[in-house]
Amino acid sequence: MISRLENLPNGVIGFEASGKISAEDYRDAVLPALTHAAEAGEVRFLLVVRDFDGMSGGALWEDLKVGAEHLRKWKRIALVTDIEWMAHVTSLFGWMTPGETKTFPLADRDRALAWAAG
């Protein structure tokens, strides 16, 4: 499930993901916010992941499309998680994502938000 985070600084969109992620999560929550942010300018993205039980095949496809559709609009992606393998994969392959990517532990959510907004 993905839910939108509210009360973020102007220009930052944020979500909290937990459990199993579905294609509907992307379609209903992420894509409308991302399209709006891209139309307004740059995409500054905060993603908080407390627990993760995988993604459906449709969700994986939507995730790949999310990055490609607005390729030049991505500015910063802050991943906030204590899931070690996720942080490790992001540090290894972050260069492949559009924009700048940085990982933060859950305790540093406010610092991650400030970085994404900066």
Automatic annotation (TrEMBL):
InterPro entries: SpoIIAA-like (IPR021866), SpoIIAA-like_sf (IPR038396), STAS_dom_sf (IPR036513). It comes from Streptomyces hydrogenans. It comes from the Bacteria. It holds the Pfam family SpoIIAA-like. This is STAS/SEC14 domain-containing protein. Coiled coil: none annotated.
